[in-house]
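FAQ

Q: What does a record look like?
A: Structure on top, sequence underneath. For example:
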């Protein structure tokens, strides 16, 4: 898939802006604080209906304005026109001029994958951040997954409420737990597929980016031991942990407590690697993620690389361009480039200056 045109209105530091993108590589060059990341943020918002930087959507409305609009033409098989309007009451989503009332029907129409410098915090962040990353990526291509996750979250809330109210109706608990088990069986299967697919190419990408022979893999810290017999194991755990849950007034077991651990050879990434290595591991992860998206959605996503060049030495920069699939539309932001990185014949450069884009 490709983004052909992006139009912004009152988005962050943009008043109005229209950008056409190359179908291969577009490089956005600009000094600090000019609006490069803002532009990528708007494209990612179309993909996930959330900002990767802030929880409060209102922060993306240009200071002093009432609303903000992100509009794009996306080429999938046909051309799709999408628009998001951010306003004081929330957001409105439109696809081909029709209002879309549920975010889940909008998410994934555009699939964009972002690398941001702050991603390297992933290894030291809480499990919640890693779960969220996995949930967003699976959810973008699998509506059933998003639905199961929403159902499960509601069921946990209900169960926690019963625990808080000290309602000890075991039949009620059992029926809630049965529903939770079904949703979790499905979620675990999808998470396993996701991690297996990433692991297929993670090492290969890391080695190509880093010129090293280290192995990188992700371990899925699944809440159950035996995925084949998950119903039995879940039922047993709920029973065994009931007194603990009742004392703590919350559900202490389930897919909402799972985690991913990244390994560099036999060591945990956060215990062993340098900042530079972590950056390459994240980049390799994003490239492996593209393989997952390609396999399960049959579409190549749009790749957004924020400030990646200044963070890599020249050799690694060249490796990155060697590894990038020429069919993937890539948008790169940078404060400058001093060599052509071997990509001179298929890139378009634009300059970002105080919320204005120059050709
Ligand atoms: N809601 C907003 N209204 C107006 N300006 C904003 C808003 N949010 C952020 N900005 C401005 O956007 C700029 C940061 O843009 P950003 O894209 O992060 O810069 P960079 O080009 O370094 O990536 C800052 O100058 C900031 O003041
Ligand atoms: Mg930036």
């Amino acid at each position: 898939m490709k983004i052909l045109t992006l139009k912004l209105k009152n988005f962050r530091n943009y008043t109005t802006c229209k950008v056409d993108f190359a179908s291969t590589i577009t490089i956005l060059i600009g000094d600090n604080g000019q609006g490069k990341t803002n532009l990528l943020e708007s494209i990612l918002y179309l993909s996930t209906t959330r900002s990767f930087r802030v929880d409060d959507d209102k922060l993306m409305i240009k200071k002093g304005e009432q609303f903000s609009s992100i509009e794009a033409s996306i080429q999938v098989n046909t051309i799709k026109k999408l628009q998001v309007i951010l306003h004081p009451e929330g957001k409105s989503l439109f696809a081909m001029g029709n209002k879309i009332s549920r975010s889940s029907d909008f998410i994934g129409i555009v699939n964009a994958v972002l690398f941001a410098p702050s991603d390297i915090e992933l290894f030291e962040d809480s499990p919640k951040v890693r779960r969220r990353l996995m949930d967003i990526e699976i959810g973008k291509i699998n509506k059933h997954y998003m639905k199961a996750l929403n159902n499960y979250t509601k069921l946990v809330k209900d169960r926690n409420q019963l625990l808080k109210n000290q309602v000890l109706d075991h039949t009620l608990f059992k029926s809630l737990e049965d529903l939770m088990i079904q949703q979790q069986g499905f979620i675990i299967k999808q998470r396993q597929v996701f991690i297996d697919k990433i692991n297929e190419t993670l090492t290969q990408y890391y080695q190509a980016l880093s010129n090293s022979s280290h192995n990188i893999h992700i371990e899925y810290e699944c809440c159950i031991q035996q995925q084949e017999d998950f119903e039995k194991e879940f039922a047993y755990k709920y029973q065994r942990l009931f007194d603990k849950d009742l004392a703590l007034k919350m559900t202490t077991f389930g897919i909402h407590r799972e985690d991913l651990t990244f390994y560099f050879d036999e060591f945990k990434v956060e215990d062993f690697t340098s900042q530079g290595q972590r950056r390459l591991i994240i980049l390799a992860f994003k490239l492996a993620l593209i393989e997952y998206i390609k396999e399960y959605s049959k579409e190549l996503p749009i790749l957004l690389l924020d400030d990646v060049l200044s963070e890599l030495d020249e050799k690694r920069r060249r490796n990155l361009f060697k590894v990038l699939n020429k069919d993937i539309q890539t948008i790169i932001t940078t404060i400058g480039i001093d060599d052509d990185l071997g990509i001179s014949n298929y890139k378009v450069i634009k300059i970002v200056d105080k919320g204005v884009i120059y050709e």
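Q: Is there anything notable about this one?
A: The chain has two domains: 1-111+300-359, 121-298.
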